[in-house]
Amino acid sequence: MSKIYLVGTGPGSAEYLTSVAFKTVKLADVLVGSRRALDLFPDYQRDTLELRALNMDEMMEKTVELAKGGKTIVVLSTGDPGFSGVLKSIQRLAENVKIEVVPGISSLQLCAARLQLPWDEANIMTLHGKGNSAPILEVIDNGKPTIVLPDFRVHDLAQFLLDNGVDPGINAAVCERLSYPDERIFRGSLEEVTKEEFSYLCVMVVY
Hints:
The chain is an alpha/beta fold. The chain has two domains: 3-102, Cobalt-precorrin-4 Transmethylase, domain 1 (3-Layer(aba) Sandwich); 107-206, Tetrapyrrole methylase, C-terminal domain (Methyltransferase, Cobalt-precorrin-4 Transmethylase, Domain 2, 2-Layer Sandwich), CATH 3.30.950. 28% of the residues lie in helices and 25% in strands. The chain has eight helices and ten strands. It has helices at 19-25, 35-38, 56-68, 87-93, 107-114, 134-137, 154-163, 190-193, and strands at 3-8, 30-34, 47-51, 72-77, 98-102, 123-126, 146-149, 171-176, 184-189, 202-206. A five-stranded parallel β-sheet has the order 3-2-4-1-5, with helices on both faces. A five-stranded mixed β-sheet has the order 6-7-10-8-9. The longest helix is centred in the first third of the chain and has 13 residues, at 56-68. The chain is elongated and about 55 Å long.
């Protein structure tokens, strides 16, 4: 049976790649991933497919077709494939294709570690591709910390929460570019988050 491996590549730095991720990539006839993910494997010498925001559906379909044609495919998924990763997309398309998931370290895990925040009872959410929407409002005041992957801009998410009645003085933290040399941890109030500039590689915590 055809096979696709989904490999989690961690939050960004090669230091957070697992040894099994390296071993799995060596099996690939074709390696699929974003440029940021592909760059983590500079020694890979065979075919690659680069995923971009505008070609994601096309590349996922091509990935499945290559697997059905007998190629061993490894798809790189930033963080962990099962959380805001490629698992859902591949499952929708890959009928009669065997899938094996190699988990990775999510940026949410690293965020919780940096903040020394036990996260077994936290609200865990992703807004990637969903926009700033009502689901976060349903949990933000339930007494648990909320760890969230913003849709794009942290500033916009913070402003959305304020516009919907969340206390501007509530504690917030933003973990930016986790695992990279220019990693930044910001702590302050939710209102203060709206006054800061952040890149798109962020995790936000409200607690």
